[in-house]
Each structure stands twice: as C-alpha cells, then as structure tokens.
Amino acid sequence: MKRVMISLVWSIALFVTVYGRVWVVAPSGGDFTKIQDALNRATAGDTILVREKSTPYYEQIYFPNSGNATQGYINLMAYPGEHPVLDGTGGRRSNMMAIKNQNYIRIIGFEIQNLKNVNDGSAIRISGYGSHIEIRNNIIHDIRGTSAMGITVYGTHSNPIEYLIIDGNEVYNCQPAPSEAITLNGNVTHFEVTNNIVRDVNNIGIDFIGGETDIQPDTALVARNGICRGNQVYRANSSYGDGYAAGIYVDGGRDIIIENNIVSGSDLGIEIGAENAGMVTRGVIVRNNVLYLNEKTGLVFGGYASYTGRVRHCQFTGNTLYKNDVLHAGWGELWIQYASNCEIRNNIFYANDQNRLSYSESGNVNNVLDYNLWFTESGTAEFVWRGHRYTSLAQFQQATGQSAHGLFADPRFQDAGNADFHLSQNSPAIDRGDPAYQAAAGETDMDGEARIANGRVDIGADEYGSVVKIGVWGERHLSRAFQLLPAYPNPFNGSINIPVRQGRSAETVRVWIMDLLGRRVAQLQPVVESGGLLQYRWQGMDATGNPVASGMYFIVAQSGLNRAVERILLKR
Fold first, then answer.
1. Residues linked to residue 492 through DSSP beta bridges, in sequence order
2. Helix (H) or strand (E) holding 523
C-alpha cells in the first residue's frame, strides 16, 4: 500500500489525528480508484484521502464499518488542497452517501451533485443509531425529485444518534419538498448544526423534528439537546400549498438553542411549531438572530391549528426583525399561534409599509411580551392580539397589559437598506433591554461580541460597543495551516485588501466574495505572494467587471478543508 506522509495529513485539519492507516483514492497512483473500495477496507483510525480528478466520481457509497473511541474515527476526506466531486448521474440508489448504525465517522470536503429523480433520498443520509458523526465543509447541490434532501439524519432506533456535528456545509438548488434541506428527525440528541449555508431550496431550510411515528414510533424520542448556530438560510420557499416554509424550523423538538443565524427571502424566517397532535415543543431558546425580508413573517411560534401540537415554555430574546411579511399576508413581524407560557423579550420588530407588527388569535395563551422595541416608518403601529386589533403601542399596552416596558422608536440601524443592522451610537435600543437579563455562558450577539457590554443588555441582535470576538458575521475556522486575517479598510469605498496566511501546507487557497443573498459575486486572485502570505484585493466589481451596489458582503476563503468568512461593508 502506498502511504502518505503524516506531515501532509497533519495539514488536513487541526481536529484530525491519524492513528491508523492512510489510504489514497485517485484515478491513478493511489491505493484505490473507487471510494467504496477504500471504505470497505477502512477500520477505526483510518483516513481515506480522495484526490480530485478531471471527471467526477460516479459513485453512491456507504460506510460498512465504524470507528471507535479508542482507535479513532474513520475519516473520509478530500485530499489536501483538492476538490473531489461525487456525481449521482445515472445512479440507482436514493442516497449518495449512507451511514447506518455506525459510530465515529467524518465526511469532509466533498462536492456532491446531480442526484436526479429522487423519491425520498439525500446527498448524505444518517439513519438508525450511532454516535460521533461529523459532516463538515461539503458542497451539496442539484439533488432533485421528491423529498430530495441535502443532509438527512433519521434517528429510527431506540438507541439515539448522538454527538453529531454538521458544520460549514453549503446546500443549494435542491428539491427537498415536502421534506427539508437539512433535517434532524426522531431520536437525535446532543448535536451541533453550525455555520452552514442553505439557499434556493423548495421547502424548509433546516429542521429539527419530533412526533413523526414513521421515523420514531416512540414520540418521546425527538430531536433534542442541540445547538443551531451561525447558519445562513436564503430563499427557502415551499413549492406546494400556499408556501409556508421556514428558513429554520423546530417541529416537535425540544431543548434546542437557535442563535446567531441569518434568514432572508424565505416564506417564514424562524418557526417553532408542533405539527403532530399531542406533541409539545418546549425548552427552545431563539436568541440573537437576524430575520429580514422574509415573505410572510419573521418569527412564528405555536401549533398551526387547534388539532395540532403545542409550543410551551420557549424563549425569544435579542432578535432583530426587519420588514418581513414582504407579501403583506398579514402576519407581520411576529406571529403567535397555539402557544402558551412563552417569553418574548429584548427584540427589535421593524415593520414594513403595512405597519403590522404582530398577529395572534385565540391560541395565544399566557405568553409574555416585554422590553421589545417596535417601529414603523409611518408612525402607525398595528397589533392584533387574540383577534383584537390595536393601532398604537399605547393602546396595545393598555388593553392587554403586555409590553409594559416596550418602546416605539426608530432603532437607528447603521444601514438597514443594505442589511447592516448594527446599532448607531444614538440608538434608543442601547442599554434598554430587560435589566434582569443575564447572558448565558458563551452567549454572544450577532457579531460574536459580548452580549452585555455596559451592565444592561441592548435590544436586538447587536450589542453596541462590546469587545469584538469571532462570530456569525466573521466566522473563522482556523488551523495553523491557514488564516484569514482582517480585511482593511473596512468599511471601504474604493478597494479592500484581503490578507490570507497560507501557512505551512502550501495548499491551494480560493477566495471569493458572496452577497447577502448567498450569491457568489466575484472570484479573486492574489496580487501579492510573499512568505506564505497571500494578498488579495477587491475593487467592488462583480465577475463581469461591473460595480456592485453599496452594502454588506462576505469574504469567503477556502484552503483544503478549512473555510473562513469575514463580513465587509462597501460604502460608495
């Protein structure tokens, strides 16, 4: 067997330690020409490196073996600096990659495409039971048919799928309807769904489900005890019914934190619901998210009808909602359905020109709103509470006893028209949140900055003046082999310099610009290379050489299996 030098393997990713053998899959000169042949041989601790080739790998693969806690993971990974593609053209099975009843598996760095005519299939499907499975930095697109999903996790056994990580993946141009692009369903616990981009899919973007008895007959075993953080979902729009797909959805799950995500252009921004009768969604915390320009509402919670499940004892805090309900469906920024004993505090609700801030009917019971900031540009504020309509915050407060400490004021975003929802220095949202609010351990605002800066939390997703950390707007996955350094000047109005530390590995570095809708605007080439430091420059032009509009953009840098993202602001 041909072995790869450990120094090369070290550069793959900081979190991988090689205990076993290293196998290479390549069109020639490797140990195998087919990925499945390598998987059939791999055992705990082994790493399979798949080389890029001129044509895709036309394979649909499965994992026959597990890793373990003693010897380590089975790692299926792109060869350092390369970009292998798996293509489902002509495939006869429903899934491109399948993991069933396995443990300690990693899949990292692949492009998976072109699985057509699917009837309940996925690019990557995990089912049964298992633990310590990681899906990282894969690009998934053009999975088409019915329930043609990106990443699917079905906990179908009495033993759970647990300690699951889905991080840094991109899923786009897929047809998951009537299912979801990324879904965790049934007996799934202790999970992290982080830093993924989902865009242009024909139903729900990311979903956490319980109560579907065809997946898990024991309805007590639901998706639970997890984190959904730093994801971006754009244009998750249902292709059936009247279109009620959420960018991020909890349907029957419990004890889940939904934080620091961005959702735009979807039917619904974030929904916390319970579709199945008898199910209660509880213990969900939705905090520090940005929801803007979604088509029917920004935030909705509760069972959708009297005969479905219920939502109870959930918290919604520190979110920024801006001009949702683009289609003027009447649900406004906040829509409360069949739900009780939930708290809605410290949020900014900024309505569009229909002035509808919130809507609820009889299913809204014992929910509490306070310390929120409400605003409409016309000055007319419309609240529908348990079916009664109120036309000012004062009238709403007096009639319902809700929002006693609420504000009606312009939050003074820095540039909301270009989706910059940072607070200006004179914003009335600064230090006006609930004085009793205590940030949870590790909780940050939308930038990854400290959630409380001056002793009292700000209203909305941005904490003005706090110390910068790394977060959703500037996420960096770092290893010693690669680093995206701060771009400068930022904001900029001419050109911006983008330094990237290539490190020891000499892997190929790809750098591009992405807009707020998740579209690639421009691919960049280095203008200076010196001592492992690459210098890129973007002059605010798209791929055709035309100037782009002022606004917020993202630098995305990829080196092998490491990806880094930084927010930048163009001001012309």
1. 570
2. strand 520-524
Note the Cα 56 to chain centre separation in Å: 27
Stronger pLDDT, 553 or 502, i.e. the higher one: 553
Distance CA 370, CA 345 (A): 5
Cβ neighbours of residue 107 under 8 Å, at least 6 residues apart? 76, 77, 97, 124, 134, 135, 136, 138
Note the pLDDT tens digit of each residue in 74-112: 999 999 878 899 999 999 899 999 999 999 999 999 999
Phi, psi of 46 (to 5 degrees): -85, 150
Q: How far apart (Å, rounded) are the C-alpha atoms in residues 205 and 497?
A: 33
What is the distance between the alpha carbons of residues 513 and 500, in angstroms, rounded to a whole number? 14
Residues 6+ apart with CB under 8 A from 354: 325, 328, 330, 332, 382
Q: Which residue has the tokens 């492992």?
A: 532
- Smallest CA-to-CA distance from 25 within 69, 82, 68, 94 is with 82
The two tokens of residue 74 are 């089975």
Q: 479 with 13: CB under 8 angstroms? A: yes
CA distance 401 to 156: 45
Confidence of residue 209 (pLDDT cuts 50, 70, 90): very high
Paired residues of 185 in beta bridges:
154, 209
Our CA angle for 443, 448, 450, nearest 5°, is 60
Q: 375-405 burial string, b = 16+ CB within 10 Å, else e?
A: bbeeeebbbbbeeeebeebeebbeeeebbee
Cβ neighbours of 343 (radius 10 Å): 17
**How buried is residue 346: exposed, middle or buried, by Cβ count under 10 Å (0-12/13-18/19+)?**
buried
Could you report the per-residue pLDDT of 423-457, keeping only the tens digit for each? 999 999 999 999 999 999 989 999 888 999 989 99
- At 355, is the secondary structure helix, strand, or coil? coil
d(CA 554, CA 56): 29
Spatial contact of 521 and 514, defined as CB atoms under 8 Å apart = yes
Q: What are phi and psi of 38, to 5 degrees?
A: -70, -40
Task: At 557, give phi and psi (nearest 5°).
Answer: -120, 135
Closest CA to 126 of 66, 77, 168: 66
- Residue 486: cis peptide before it, omega within 30 degrees of 0: no
Phi then psi dihedrals of residue 395, to 5 deg: -65, -40
Distance CA 401, CA 370 (A): 10
| Strand order, beta sheet including 509-515 | 520-524, 509-515, 551-559, 562-570
What pLDDT, on the 0 to 100 scale, is given for residue 20?
Answer: 81
Give the C-alpha separation, 21 to 14, whole Å. 18
Under a CB-based contact definition with an 8 Å cutoff, are residues 532 and 449 in contact?
Answer: no
Task: Walk me through the domains of the chain, giving residue ranges and CATH numbers.
Answer: 476-570 (2.60.40.1930)
- Residue 205: pLDDT band with limits 50, 70, 90: very high
Express each pLDDT in 302-354 by its tens digit: 999 999 999 999 999 999 999 999 999 999 999 999 999 999 999 999 999 99
pTM of the model: 0.83
Distance of alpha carbon 50 from alpha carbon 34, whole angstroms: 9
- The more confidently predicted of residues 376 and 483 is 376
